[in-house]
Amino acid sequence: MIYSRKHNKIVDYLGTKQHLAVDLDISAVPGGGIRIRSGQQRFYERFLQFRFPRLLTGEADVTEWYDDAQEKYRISVQVNNPLLGTIFRYAGSFQAYFIDTGKQPIPLDVKPLREERRE
């Protein structure tokens, strides 16, 4: 995930080889949460680059917040396609922990198989 000056947005690179770049619109929601909505999606594989037509994508709407009473993060996800409507929906919770990468290296199984500069 990077801030793209070219797109003036946060861009998330998805997949183990980071083939898919997705523009993200991020905003605060009442109660201290964060809302993330996906935008334009682009495919990258070496010299092949193209934008996915909107009709062939899923548009994600994600809300995350911390639930003090449950001591967990909460998440709500809905993915819609312009033609098919809702294609995925999820609501749940998770707990997070942080790894001090100054004391131990980033585990290889959480890093992408390929990293490359695209801007």
UniProtKB/TrEMBL annotation:
What InterPro entries does the entry give?
DUF4166 (IPR025311)
- Which classification does the entry list for the species? Bacteria, Bacillati, Bacillota, Bacilli, Bacillales
Residues covered by the DUF4166 domain = 1-94
Q: What is this protein called?
A: DUF4166 domain-containing protein
Reading the lineage from the top rank, the first entry is Bacteria
- State one Pfam family annotation: DUF4166
